[in-house]
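Office hours follow-up: a student asked to see two folded examples consecutively, so here they are.
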Amino acid sequence: MDYSYPFSIDWTTEEIVDVVTFFEAIELAYEKGVKRQSLMAKYRRFKEIVPSMAEEKTYFREFEEESGYASFPVIKEMKARSDEEIIKMKK
């Protein structure tokens, strides 16, 4: 991993850690698969920190530009697949 995670300087250290943990779960969804419930909990926490949809899109875009991992399809899959235990994306 040779990239940085998007964050705001206005966030607390805990909030930065929580957002990075969320983006790490996005990476896992592409690399190995991630438990849906775990991803959902991390996304809920992310939304507490970034409640605005416009800001969410900005951070998702920044993360994708840095890492190559698209967050939106993972979240869409998570919401659509309530019967799945593991969310695994194809690159």
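And the second, which I mentioned at the end of office hours:
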Amino acid sequence: MTNLAAQIHARLGAQLRRVAALADELCYEVEPEQLLEVCRTLRDADEFRFEMLMDVCGVDYLDYRVDEWRTTSATRSGFSRGVERDSARRPHDGARFAVAYHLLSITHNVRLRLRARCIDAEDPMIDSLVDIWPSANWFEREAFDLFGILFSGHPDLRRILTDYGFIGHPFRKDFPLIGNVEVRYDPEQRRVIYEPVSIEPRTLVPKVIRHDSRYDPALTSATVAQPAVKS
């Protein structure tokens, strides 16, 4: 692993930036405009020989680092309201969406994770790697289906998991948990029909209800009168 990191730094140090990962993993970030060139080098260079693209994963950084809960003070185990820890700045220059590529070198028996941000938050787009690794075909279709990430140059970019008439992208963090429509089989029409969602939405934000003067503003500024006791 140390040798691979040194080789990457020597060959691609100007194009890749190493990011924190587990001790036995290598993870690098690449600018989207340099993705194709870097991937070809990782595949073809003798010191790398990453012949296989094992997986392609979409990432949604919406509300990134807003993962804490506050009661009387910020804590990692309380349940109240989300607060920002340290800097809430997203990686990749603030881009909401990114793509992670998991590479395997059979020749050298090493793995590598590569991440690249998508250009636009509304219609995220990045270059397709199908011409470099054919296995990217279905992986990129999955990322398009679930995250709405567009892959420029993909030969057949269409949904692969959800239905053709599915609305939205279910792995986006702002996708409603109850969905947008529901389907059922109508025996009279003899087909599956789409209908508005009949499930009532639930609030899933953890809430603390404490009968304590510390959490009741009305009780912190005045003393509650105690009822008189008859003798």
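Two things to take away from it. The longest helix spans residues 136-147. The chain has a mean pLDDT of 81.
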